[in-house]
Amino acid sequence: MTDKGFNYFLEKFSLPDWQVEVDLNTINQYRGKLPDKLLFYWEKMGFCRFKQGLFWIVNPSDYADELAIWLGEDILKQDDYYVIARSGFGKLYVWGEKTGHSYTITPTLGWIYQEIGEANDITKGLANEKIELFFAFKKTKNVDMVDNNSKLLFDRCVKKFGALEYDEMFGFVPALAISDNASIKNIDKMNIFVHLNILADLIEIQHIDFKKLGQMAFGIEDTSNLPDLNSLQ
User: pTM for the whole thing?
Assistant: First the structure.
């Protein structure tokens, strides 16, 4: 690749271990909607899987229906949104044409986290720089999940169930938002699209921003002195 940000991402996540070529029609479909640099990544690497499914660069059209269900009409009116990447546990990273990385959806918990976004930078024509940073700041441990003892789960899931396919994720049965039991005993491999739809019907979706996440994480009202919780995404 040709930029330091994505190269730094590859140092942590390694080269894709599965990929499918993106045709020119698909790239042209998103020209002017998503950053040119992201389309360049598609051209070079395709839609692809990293670390046996821990992290994916995905076709936004595959997630359009699920995104509409989770975000809802009120949010969808604010911008045109696309799922550009996802995790092995179904976390969806959402990019807005005008707002950049504006939402992160964590279906296992029923959370829609509103990111700070990059509206001002997008207006200044810095979308390519922001998408580069989006990948550069990703950490494997933050894309992963932990069990009840704060031990990372993904590698143990792969050992138990095998690597994920494009339409698969690891999910909790019963749903983690209901049971609050993040044990590998409660994890199964499942179709991501089916599971995202089931979770949307099954659990209460919570809209969370920086302030609310700080209150939940630290049990305090004043979040002015908290660390940057966006680093957890």
Answer: 0.90
Q: Which of 189, 186, 193 is nearest to 164 (CA)?
A: 189
pLDDT tens per residue across span 142-161: 999 999 999 999 999 999 99
Please give the torsion angle defined by the CA atoms of residues 9, 14, 16 and 17, in that order, rounded to the nearest 10 degrees: -160
Token pair recorded at residue 96: 């807005």
Our separate counts of H helices and E strands in the chain read 11, 10
Alpha helix positions (H), 50-116: 64-76
For tokens 């140092």, what's the residue? 11
**Which of 121, 125, 79, 124 is closest to 103 using CA atoms?**
79
- If residue 212 lies in a helix (H) or strand (E), which one and from where to where? helix 210-218
Q: What are the sequence ranges of the domains in the chain?
A: 4-142
Share of the chain above pLDDT 70, in %: 89
Q: What is the pLDDT of residues 86-125, one digit of tens each?
A: 999 999 999 999 999 999 999 999 999 999 989 999 999 9
Pick among 2.60.120, 3.40.50, 1.20.1250, 3.40.1580: CATH of 4-142? 3.40.1580
